[in-house]
Amino acid sequence: MLSAVERGIRNCKPDLAAQIDHVLNTGGKVRRLWEINHTNSAFPHWFRDIVQLQRAASEIWEFQIALIPGLLQTKEYARTRIQLAQPTASVEEIDQKVRARLDRQST
After folding, report:
1. DSSP at 72
2. Residue 91: other Cβ atoms inside 10 A
3. Which Pfam families match (predicted)?
4. What is the C-alpha to C-alpha distance for residues 14 and 95, in angstroms, rounded to an integer?
5. Closest CA to 6 of 75, 31, 16, 35
6. What is the largest CA-CA distance in the chain?
7. Which one-letter DSSP state was computed for residue 67?
8. How many angstroms separate the CA atoms of 68 and 72, rounded?
9. Which residues lie closer than 8 Å to 55 by C-beta, 6 or more apart?
């Protein structure tokens, strides 16, 4: 199971993070890092600042060679991109991420 997480085939679950903490005797660091990255947000922790900056911006310039930027994506396009990027994600997780992406367009 750990190999599948390392290869990006499977998402790390909180119980696995706790097991890694126990085996490596990290004092809970792995679990805390897991929580930082999975706090009921459709966005990873490193992207949350970008979302706030986009909300405050009066103009955004972005160059993409092959993808439509998130702020311009339709619901169907966003869903397809998210499903392709996270094939092991549940329907609920995908729905949450699609809603969050579309919500960024309305703010």
Report:
1. G
2. 8
3. DUF5753 (PF19054)
4. 21
5. 16
6. 49
7. S
8. 6
9. 104, 107
Q: What is the DSSP letter of 33?
A: H
Q: Which has the higher per-residue pLDDT, 10 or 70?
A: 70
Structure tokens at 50: 């970008």
Phi/psi for 39 (5° steps) reads -90, 80
DSSP string, 3-24: HHHHTTSSPPPHHHHHHHHHHH
Q: Is 34 helix (H, G, I), strand (E, B) or coil?
A: helix
Q: First and final CA of the chain: distance in angstroms?
A: 39
Residues 6+ apart with CB under 8 A from 106: none
CA distances from 32 to 24, 36, 63, 75, 102 (A): 14, 6, 35, 33, 29
Regarding predicted confidence, which is higher, 41 or 23?
Answer: 23
Contacts of 64 (CB under 8 A, 6+ apart): none
Give the model's confidence band at 107: pLDDT under 50 very low, under 70 low, under 90 confident, else very high: low
